[in-house]
């Protein structure tokens, strides 16, 4: 008998609330707009992103609305990462669910002033653990700009394996960039030493 991923997603009563020792993942709220704007308007955070930095707070408001709508349709789960004081310090997303192949993609961003503290690793680890256990996913993929050494270290520490380079995949403004694909299997996660 196969696992029914669409039914599992549809049965979620709300954003899954996930906790680490220093972070928690929760659904976005409209009052998170200032923090979301601060995150996605930071040129350091957006340096290797597939879109340019936000320039207007209204973009953050719209992004939160899109996150909430996508969850309502169960197209993606786009959590905000909050610290112990509930201040938003990043995002973590599972998206492009593929029920037949039990696969999804992963994305994440963290405020640049919080880099190097293990917070992204902790938050992403919670999302991965939940996805493999609760959604019975077989594979999770992530793609990064190959120049993004920080993100590469996070993925490798979580057990992801680099599986190849896609040349000139994204246009960000007028610049084109490559992307590197990473994959993590449920068996890698269960047997991993993170």
TrEMBL record:
Segments forming domain N-acetyltransferase: 23-179
Pfam families, per database record: Acetyltransf_3
Organism whose genome encodes this protein: Luteimonas galliterrae
Protein name: GNAT family N-acetyltransferase
Gene3D superfamilies, A to Z: 3.40.630.30
InterPro entries the UniProt entry points to: Acyl_CoA_acyltransferase (IPR016181), GNAT_dom (IPR000182), Ribosomal_N-acetyltransferase (IPR051908)
């Amino acid at each position: 008998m196969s696992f029914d991923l669409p039914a599992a997603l549809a049965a979620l009563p709300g954003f899954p609330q996930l906790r680490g020792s220093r972070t928690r993942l929760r659904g976005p709220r409209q009052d998170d707009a200032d923090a979301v704007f601060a995150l996605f308007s930071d040129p350091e955070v957006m340096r290797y992103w597939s879109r340019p930095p936000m320039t207007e707070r209204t973009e953050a408001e719209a992004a939160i609305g899109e996150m909430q709508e996508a969850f309502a349709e169960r197209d993606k789960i786009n959590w905000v990462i909050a610290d112990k004081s509930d201040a938003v310090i990043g995002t973590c997303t599972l998206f492009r669910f593929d029920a037949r192949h039990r696969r999804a993609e992963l994305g994440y961003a963290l405020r640049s002033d919080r880099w190097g503290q293990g917070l992204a690793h902790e938050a992403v680890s919670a999302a991965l653990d939940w996805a493999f256990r609760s959604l019975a996913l077989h594979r999770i993929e992530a793609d990064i700009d190959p120049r993004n050494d920080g993100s590469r270290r996070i993925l490798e520490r979580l057990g992801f394996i680099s599986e190849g380079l896609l040349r000139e995949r994204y246009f960000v403004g007028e610049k084109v960039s490559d992307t590197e694909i990473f994959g993590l299997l449920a068996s890698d996660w269960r047997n991993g030493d993170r």
